[in-house]
Please model this.
Amino acid sequence: MIPEFSGTRQKYIRLSAWMSAYSIASVYLLFALTKYLTAADSSYFSWTALGLVCMLIIAYFFVHLYVMSHYDGTNRSGSGWSNVATSVKLPQRKRPRKFG
Amino acid sequence: MIESLHTALAPYYLQIKFVHLVFVSMWLWSTAVAFVYYVVPVMQNWRRNPQDTQLAALRDWVFERFDQGVALEHTAFPMIIVTGLLLLIAGGWTSESSWLVLKLAIFVAIFLPLEICDYYISHLSNKRLIRDSGDETGYQQAVLTHWWFFLLTTPAIVLFPLLIFYLAIVKPVF
Model:
């Protein structure tokens, strides 16, 4: 029996949000904390830095979402990832591609 | 201890850097072709035709081969850590160098957890071993888990290594 893949548009959005927030925020916090603790440099804890981090998280979210849906092959049938059916019933090829 | 190591290693800084870069290249690109031209197309076709048993068999075969091929990447990774530490000592780098701190932050926050998961998925949850055990459901679940792992980590694999290369080569001051 072949289990169904549980990818849905909502799941992609949720996972992309988590991944982008974790990736950018953790790298920033590690960087700023290391500079603060080892070089006594607190200049990286600022509103400017926080704003930049937020913008990077938002930008990375869209990149992540695009790459995820692109690699899953779910943005081929129309205008993009928003076309993905939530039940993952993807459009069938008339003739499956042949390999080998 | 660190001082004597620094004195001993400093003359070989460029040689250690050469070895480090060889393993970094091996780690980053060794699975690129297999992933882009084999895993992704096969998986996309199976996603469009999930009931096609021939495509499912082909998908399983590709994933098992990928599990074998990823050994190159996973051999290189510990070597990167060792040579990276040697470079750190030989170069006498400190946290004053922001490019290095950012590079290490990316390594610790992104690549270390990613590789730990990858080691588990590829070797401890190896598809061929599960197939040999006769656990069909576990096998299919392992393939799908691996695919989820790819979908989640591919954006990071595309972007962060470029940033690491830039930081390591340009060494920007900020």
About this structure: Chain B has seven helices and no strands.
